[in-house]
């Protein structure tokens, strides 16, 4: 498995847009009432804008894009806007590997923050397994945070 995680360019946006749509639409299998996703999840214009502004990332295996992420650095906190993996590659460890790569790519970040829908049993279990702790919750979303362990 030759995985690489890096910033995506505008030329990657069409493939990432297609994977995003497939990945988020597959959430009907884990509690979503219908196909759908976060704002812009199936918008090429949105993914192009994220690529141009340096927020769009890609996960490749042997050069083939299999997933992506949208990340926002805010001082010493990284907001993980979303991650997504092609459904053909679900349950193979790619999401876990991508999260480890995200954390490694930003060594100066003190905290990682993200949110996920309350109904999504897959992502809530996934983030908890990776050490993210629930910090807030409302009727729609659970908000998670993970502090970077500092060496003494």
Mean pLDDT: 92
How large a portion of the residues is in β-strands, by DSSP E? 25-35%
Named at the architecture level, the CATH assignment is 3-Layer(aba) Sandwich
Order of strands in the sheet with the most strands? 1-2-3-4-5-7-6
CATH homologous superfamily? Gcn5-related N-acetyltransferase (GNAT)
The helix content is 25-40%
Low-confidence stretches: none
Q: What is the top-level CATH class?
A: Alpha Beta
Task: Sum up the overall morphology in one term.
Answer: globular
Count of alpha and pi helical runs: 4
Count every beta strand, where a strand is a DSSP E run of 2 or more residues.
7
Order of helices and strands: EHHEEEHEHEE
End-to-end distance, in Å? 34 Å
Jot down its keywords.
single chain; about 150 residues; alpha+beta; Aminopeptidase; seven-stranded mixed β-sheet; about 30% helix
Description:
This protein is of the alpha+beta class and 152 residues long. The chain has a single domain, classed as Aminopeptidase (3-Layer(aba) Sandwich), CATH 3.40.630. Helix content is 28%, strand content 33%. It contains 4 helices and 7 strands. The chain has helices at residues 13-25, 44-52, 94-105, 121-129, and strands at residues 3-7, 56-61, 64-74, 77-85, 111-117, 133-137, 141-147. A 7-stranded mixed β-sheet has the order 1-2-3-4-5-7-6, with helices on both faces. Strand 3 and strand 4 (77-85) form a beta hairpin. The radius of gyration is 15 Å and the shape is globular.
